[in-house]
Design brief:
With 453 residues, this protein is an alpha+beta fold. It is built from 9 helices and 14 strands. 52% of the residues lie in helices and 20% in strands. A 5-stranded antiparallel β-sheet has the order 4-3-7-6-5. It has a 5-stranded mixed β-sheet with strand order 9-11-12-14-13. A hairpin with a 2-residue loop joins strand 1 and strand 2 (65-68). The protein is rod-shaped and about 165 Å long. Its EC number is 2.7.13.3.
Length: 453
């Protein structure tokens, strides 16, 4: 199957930072252009206004007529924009041009009068910017407003706006490079724990499934925890397989050799009675070997299901009923009794594993206990119990202490795995296997936490 590839974390961070910088650049550039245009307009509007005021201040009245002596200071102000063309016009109260160009457009009538008026208009073939200043006279020989209009093209304004926007863009580009560099360094630093984790895994022996203990950031710690959990489950599966192979090699060699030797003796035996006894012993040992194999396979299956079977809500009353139905045809099975409460007793677990553990407890009670055998379910304070009771006194304290370990059978013909299976099932469900005397006999029970506890 082809390896699924996706973008690296560095590429994703670079893409995200680049997108932010591009979007920020567009916003900053638009803001810079707007600010630059406004700043340039305000700066050169002041020049226009200063020139117009100088011209208005130079108007005098002689012999009942307005005379305009164009001041040099007005043109010096306008010369601060040497690339721009200028146009001026002075009109009398009747609107007639006193001096200047007739082509200079007047301000809009609705905005004329009062203070200075700025407006846009053409200056030849180019767009221009104008200001109109009105000076009012009230003399005996001359009365009325004199309007001064001064305009210039927009080249200097546009150049200043571009300079402001270009400077802002240069600053943004430098800041973007710095942010990109810092983001790259931060990404490398943030990914270094993952590189350490990968190196630690690469250095490990394939059989080393112990937890990895490395300091990890909070965001990566769940990944390490999940990895350690997976290796723990894999280690339990490997250990179960190893134990199954070792147990099979150790436990099966002796009974198989004995059956083989007895079969050879039976084949060579001439006495019919002795041959019959040998065949009976072969049959008995075959049954014991079959039970041992069943228990070993059951244990392997239980360990496998511990990490693979999904946990679901299980009513222990159903588990007890299934155990009873599975064993009622065994020798002594008719002496079994069910003790079930009326309300459900729910745990979260694997029903098959719980049934298998209970069957082992009940089979032990049938084989080694004293009738009547009772299978039931009970509630404790924070736990529930799936129990099997018999009326016997149970094993002694010394024997009871070692029960539950693998191959720790103290009964003739026992495989020594039934209680080990029950203990492992209880532990995999967060509970314990309890063995001990009760008020009316001996009890073996799986003590399990309640669902949701």
């Amino acid at each position: 199957m082809a390896e699924s590839r996706t973008w690296s974390l560095k590429a994703r961070v670079a893409l995200a930072v680049g997108a932010v910088l591009i979007l920020g650049g567009v916003v900053v550039l638009s803001v810079a252009l707007s600010y630059g245009g406004r700043a340039a307009r305000e700066a050169y509007d002041r020049l226009l206004l200063g020139a117009a005021n100088d011209i208005a201040a130079a108007i005098t009245i002689r012999d009942g007529a307005a005379l305009v002596d164009m001041p040099a200071s007005a043109f010096q102000m306008l010369a601060l924009a040497p690339e721009d063309r200028i146009r001026y016009r002075v009109t009398g109260p009747d609107g007639a041009t006193l001096t200047g160009s007739e082509d200079a457009p007047p301000p809009p009538e609705r905005r004329a009068g009062g203070g200075p008026v700025f407006y846009d208009g053409d200056l030849g073939a180019e767009p221009g910017r104008y200001v109109a200043v009105t000076r009012r006279f009230a003399e005996r020989s001359f009365s009325g407003p004199v309007r001064v209009m001064v305009g210039q093209t927009l080249r200097a304004r546009q150049a200043l706006a571009r300079d402001i926007a270009g400077g802002a863009l240069a600053v943004l580009a430098a800041a973007g490079l710095a942010i990109g560099l810092f983001a790259w360094l931060a990404t490398r630093s943030a990914l270094r724990p993952l590189q350490r984790l990968g190196a630690a895994l690469a250095r490990r022996d394939p059989t080393d499934l112990t937890p990895i203990t490395l300091p990890m950031p909070t965001e990566i710690a769940p990944v390490l925890g999940a990895l350690n959990g997976f290796m723990g489950r894999l280690d339990r599966q490997v250990a179960a397989t190893r134990n199954l192979i070792g147990d099979a090699a150790h436990q099966l060699r002796t009974p198989v050799a004995a059956i083989r030797a007895q079969a050879q003796d039976a084949q060579e035996e001439q006495d019919p009675a002795r041959r019959a006894r040998l065949l009976a012993r072969i049959h008995e040992r075959s049954i014991g070997l079959s039970q041992l194999l069943d228990r070993m396979l059951d244990r392997a299956m239980i360990i496998h299901r511990t990490d693979t079977a999904p946990r679901a809500a299980v009513d222990l009353r159903d588990v007890a009923l299934e155990i009873y139905e599975a064993l009622e045809d065994m020798p002594g099975g008719t002496m079994m009794r069910l003790e079930l409460p009326p309300a459900p007793v729910v745990v979260r677990g694997d029903a098959l594993s719980l049934v298998e553990a209970g069957k082992n407890l009940a089979a032990n009670a049938l084989a080694h206990g004293r009738a009547p055998i009772r299978i039931g379910v009970a509630r404790d304070n924070r736990a529930v119990r799936l129990y099997v009771r018999d009326a016997g006194p149970g094993p002694g304290a010394a024997i009871l202490e070692g029960m539950g370990a693998r191959f720790a059978s103290h009964a003739p013909g026992g495989a020594g795995l039934g209680l080990a299976i029950a203990r492992e099932v209880a532990q995999s469900h967060g509970g314990t296997l309890r063995l001990g005397l009760c008020e009316d006999g001996f009890e073996a029970a799986l003590s399990l936490p309640k669902a949701g506890a």
